[in-house]
Amino acid sequence: MLIECKDLVKKYRLEDRELQAVDHVSFSVAEGDFVAILGHSGSGKTTLLSMIGGLARPDQGNVYINGVDCWRQSELKLAGMRNQLIGFIFQFGSLIPTMTAIENVLLPLSFADPGSDPSAKIPLARELLDQVGLADKENSFPAQLSGGQQRRVAIARAFINRPGIILADEPTGDLDEDTEGEILEIFRQYNTEKKTTFLVVTHNSKLVLTQNNPRTFLMKDGQFSEARISGST
Length: 233
Ligand SMILES: Nc1ncnc2c1ncn2[C@@H]1O[C@H](COP(=O)(O)OP(=O)(O)OP(=O)(O)O)[C@@H](O)[C@H]1O
Ligand SMILES: [Mg+2]
Fold this sequence. Notes:
Elements: E1 3-14, E2 17-29, E3 34-39, H1 45-52, E4 60-65, E5 68-69, H2 75-85, E6 86-89, H3 101-112, H4 122-131, H5 147-158, E7 165-169, H6 177-193, E8 197-201, H7 205-210, E9 214-220, E10 223-227
Parallel strand pairs: 3-8, 3-9, 6-7, 7-8
Antiparallel strand pairs: 1-2, 1-4, 4-5, 9-10
Helix pairs in contact: 3-4, 3-5, 4-5
């Protein structure tokens, strides 16, 4: 299995109250799976993705990626796995405001391979910006881009290291329908041609239905269950 989550728990303490944001979640994802995660606001989707991606330490349970128990690794090793295996598309603005669009896209390279020369990847960064429809914006700063354009830069950035896993938190949340369709098509291509594994949080069941073999999970009050949503195919 590419990803295995075993009995994941994440609690938050608010004054004297304890909230179980993720409540004993176990599931596994095979290489090439396309996983859609649905659920109401506050149900724990972002928290779950953060634990899988090595960003938020679980209170209990394990995340295995290729059999490696992520949260039992040193910080350095964990950071290495995060940078080399995973591309993130965060729910909220995550671009560096002082860097241009193309510099933002190139940024993960400097974490994954600090000695490397990012200029070698400029053609790839341009290709990714072109794929998300921003070929003419590579030198724009985030503040000069619309919310949806910033979102698309963040999508391009997630692919720069050619990660095997993309974790995407509401990637098309604020995009118009055409742009959303284009982004979903990019995801589909990576998924079918490069066997990139996707875990995508979404409120939009269209995303589920446009993919070939989606697996759909529903998050509810921190609990996680696999659902069968039957598409037209
Ligand atoms: N850092 C934190 N401190 C305290 N509580 C938190 C923290 N982060 C999240 N929570 C709480 O944990 C629960 C799950 O939050 P999470 O962000 O995972 O939900 P979500 O499903 O991603 O929601 P949305 O669809 O609105 O993004 C919520 O009740 C939230 O208030
Ligand atoms: Mg969220």
